[in-house]
Amino acid sequence: MMGGGPKPEHLLVILPFSEPTxxxxxxxxxxxxxxxxxxxxxxxxxxxxxxESVPPEIFHDATLLITLSALPPTRQxxxxxxxxxxxxxxxxxxxxxxxxxxxxxxxxTSSGIHGPQIAEWVLLTTLASSHHYALLESWQRKHSWGDxxxxxxxxxxxxxxxxxxxxxGYGSIxxxxxxxxxxxxxxxxxxxASPRDTPESKKDHGFIVxxxxxxxxxxxxxxxxxxxxxxxxxxxxxxxxHLLVSVPLTKQTTHMLGKEEMEILSKRNAFITNISxxxxxxxxxxxxxxxxxxxxxSSKDLHADGSFALEPEAAIKADTSIxxxxxxxxxxxxxxxxxxxxxxxxxxxxxxxxxxSGQGSAYVDRCFQVFEVNLDRREKGEKLINVVDRxxxx
Length: 394
What we know:
Blueprint: E1 9-15, H1 21-30, E2 34-40, E3 64-67, E4 83-86, H2 98-101, E5 107-108, H3 115-130, H4 133-141, H5 148-154, E6 164-168, H6 172-183, E7 187-192, E8 222-225, H7 229-236, E9 242-245, H8 259-266, E10 271-274, H9 283-300, H10 312-318, E11 327-330, E12 350-352, H11 363-380
Parallel strand pairs: 1-2, 1-3, 3-4, 4-5, 6-7, 6-9, 7-8, 9-10, 10-11, 11-12
Helix pairs in contact: 3-6
């Protein structure tokens, strides 16, 4: 910053929704030297695919850019650009852009804003599965007070107390889910790519919604780390009852969870939740292991009248030989949108939602809050938060 005050800035905002006028008013009050240009770019049903292209000249005078996925075609189209902020937690969808691969323009993400909403989705889908909500909803729809078969299922519902949550990728989302799980009496263990063996390394240095997450890394009872299969398998073998997949999508994490990993998790008949990206899980392997559990329980634990001799979770305790995973909740799939004839739709005890777990009324405002934190830090010459390490892909 010069002695006469901050230099004039031109903020270009390209987003797929209406102009956030109240947020812009706030930015203009706080940063009167920032000129704002807004361009609405709508998307098709195909993820990240815009209905139209952005005119390259729109980037020419911008010094700051806030975008979901639209980037300048080349560095020559944005000679003044000094900072790019994306409104997503990941950057895999822009990783092939020349601006990503061929420049060093600082790129920051909105990581940290999704924790509260996604943690609620994780809780919603996990409990909907374990508490047989589909059955309860069907009773209400039929104006029925239930039946003996259903009551038999519900008598054996297990709560979360004493169960173990394994968080594969202990970032901002994983930390908030860990916080909620801990409050429910679960044990939490964490897995990260690099070791977190000091108090400082366990801290969250990114954006944190006040009152949420795990700022100091205090919730996990144990930390695991590594980047090879042996390390991953060691973590997955820690008697995990519920696995949360929250790692970023990179070349290294693509199909990170396949047949071998499913077999390890099947020893506890774990429940798996994916809020990251669909490509991290081998869906063919997932479908097979869900079907294996369902086939075994359905064939072995039914009375002659069609009622369960043991509810699936109780059957697990009585018979450790039951194969497969007890269920899954997926907010992401491969591909997206998931084709109507994809077998994943009919996978046993699998909840699927269309990549909406992070959506909510506070989403846009929190995206801009991250940007404003970095605008303040930039003025003061301080280190930015949520900066993407292009060599790692996140």
